[in-house]
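User: quick one, sequence for these tokens?
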């Protein structure tokens, strides 16, 4: 029993150290922003479509509550993975009276949108792909640990980059496709990379580029995003109710003929590793960002489904 503990301790210690080093957020002792700093981190929600999980570092620290640790209000977030932990208590240390206003008894019901000023995500992006006829822009909902992270990728790459069955294609490369028109909730983000000028403009309002899988066949390059089936997909949606289960299944098999679902255990490593299918430098990422993307600090946690308990800091 003891031995086992000794074997695990160094792993946890290494994780904590690398966590602390990688976390440039001095005030964020809990490391919450390690994951929550990314615009586009969203999960699907029943009522209004998506629930933003992004918290912008600068905006948070300069907000009225910026000096308060996340966990002082979020009293039930004790470990990762966590999901659906919506309980907050604003009276653990503050709002107990005196100089600080005492909160009314029903304050819990008035807290929706508390972080709204600190959150950004894409609220609409029309692309002409068949995928988007049937799937939302943020399409992942099943796996509570990774769905938010997978969803944020939809803001900078097409579905095919991850989902194409690479056995069906030759000479694949990965390149930016030219601009698309996106609507944002919060501050626009992303990259407007122009493959012709090889220049990236940061935060070019509303117009941005996404990475596409590109096949080169007989000397000709063509981006793999399925627009050929879009009309058929729309027709399918219209008459879906009248189809019997077999017909439906056959059609779906057809629409997904080049698509595969990947295991999380391999999916992140296909890009975030030294064997990445993406050439980050060629795509225009600078050296620091390339290194960050290859050695992504949260990857181990996500891929190995390890439970990590936040240290009690107060
Ligand atoms: C002063 C208290 C307070 C602090 C400090 C605080 N939060 Fe929140 N947080 C809230 C409230 C209130 C909600 C809204 C809860 C609800 O909708 O019922 C919320 C919601 C959230 C949500 C869910 C998304 C949403 O918008 O509803 C996330 C994610 C979150 N907080 C992360 C953080 C992180 C990360 C930090 C630290 C950087 C932090 N919070 C600091 C009070 C706080
Ligand atoms: C390893 C990554 C990671 C870390 C570290 C992390 N979170 Fe999260 N958090 C997530 C993900 C992913 C989700 C979305 C889960 C889902 O899809 O339901 C989430 C969801 C949330 C939610 C919203 C729950 C909901 O469904 O409305 C809150 C609140 C939250 N986190 C607060 C925190 C706080 C506070 C900390 C620090 C103590 C923290 N998180 C640290 C990854 C992380
Ligand atoms: C006509 C509607 C339709 C179109 C078009 C479509 N999908 Fe789907 N997709 C579905 C439905 C419905 C499911 C769930 C049922 C199933 O498993 O077949 C699904 C499931 C999936 C899955 C999960 C498969 C699994 O094994 O669990 C992936 C990945 C996926 N779609 C990606 C795509 C991509 C990428 C495209 C564009 C090339 C696309 N889909 C086009 C309707 C569609
Ligand atoms: C960064 C890579 C990546 C991108 C980009 C991506 N996916 Fe996925 N997707 C995955 C992985 C990995 C899984 C398997 C998740 C799991 O096992 O829980 C998955 C699972 C799915 C599923 C089934 C499980 C679920 O979470 O509902 C659907 C449907 C799906 N993807 C559709 C799409 C569509 C449509 C797009 C484009 C809008 C897209 N994906 C873009 C990596 C990606
Ligand atoms: C097909 C390639 C690909 C796959 C697969 C992939 N990623 Fe990424 N990921 C990227 C790229 C490219 C970026 C940077 C995009 C940008 O900043 O413009 C990125 C960014 C991120 C970021 C934000 C980091 C940052 O510094 O911007 C996180 C977090 C992340 N990925 C997590 C994951 C996880 C977890 C998985 C597996 C579930 C995964 N990724 C799978 C290509 C991929």
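Assistant:
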């Amino acid at each position: 029993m003891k031995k086992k503990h000794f074997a695990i301790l160094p792993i946890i210690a290494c994780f904590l150290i690398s966590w602390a080093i990688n976390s440039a957020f001095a005030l964020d002792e809990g490391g919450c922003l390690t994951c929550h700093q990314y615009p586009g981190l969203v999960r699907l929600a029943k009522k209004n479509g998506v629930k933003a999980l992004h918290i912008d570092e600068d905006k948070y620290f300069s907000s009225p509550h910026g000096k308060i640790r996340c966990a002082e209000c979020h009293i039930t977030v004790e470990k990762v993975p966590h999901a659906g932990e919506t309980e907050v208590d604003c009276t653990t240390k503050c709002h107990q009276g005196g100089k600080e206003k005492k909160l009314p008894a029903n304050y819990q019901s008035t807290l929706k949108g508390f972080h709204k000023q600190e959150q950004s995500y894409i609220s609409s992006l029309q692309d002409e792909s068949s995928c988007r006829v049937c799937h939302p822009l943020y399409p992942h909902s099943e796996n509570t640990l990774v769905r938010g992270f997978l969803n944020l990728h939809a803001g900078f790459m097409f579905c095919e980059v991850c989902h194409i069955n690479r056995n069906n294609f030759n000479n694949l490369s990965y390149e930016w496709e030219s601009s698309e028109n996106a609507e944002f909730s919060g501050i626009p983000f992303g990259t407007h990379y122009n493959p012709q000028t090889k220049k990236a403009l940061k935060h070019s309002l509303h117009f941005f580029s996404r990475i596409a899988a590109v096949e080169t066949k007989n000397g000709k390059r063509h981006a793999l995003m399925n627009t050929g089936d879009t009309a058929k997909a729309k027709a399918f949606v219209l008459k879906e109710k009248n189809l019997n289960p077999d017909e439906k299944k056959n059609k779906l098999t057809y629409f997904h003929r080049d698509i595969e679902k990947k295991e999380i255990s391999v999916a992140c490593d296909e890009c975030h590793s030294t064997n990445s299918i993406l050439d980050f430098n060629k795509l225009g990422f600078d050296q620091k960002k390339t290194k960050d993307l290859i050695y992504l600090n949260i990857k181990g946690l996500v891929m190995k489904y390890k439970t990590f308990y936040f240290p009690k800091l107060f």
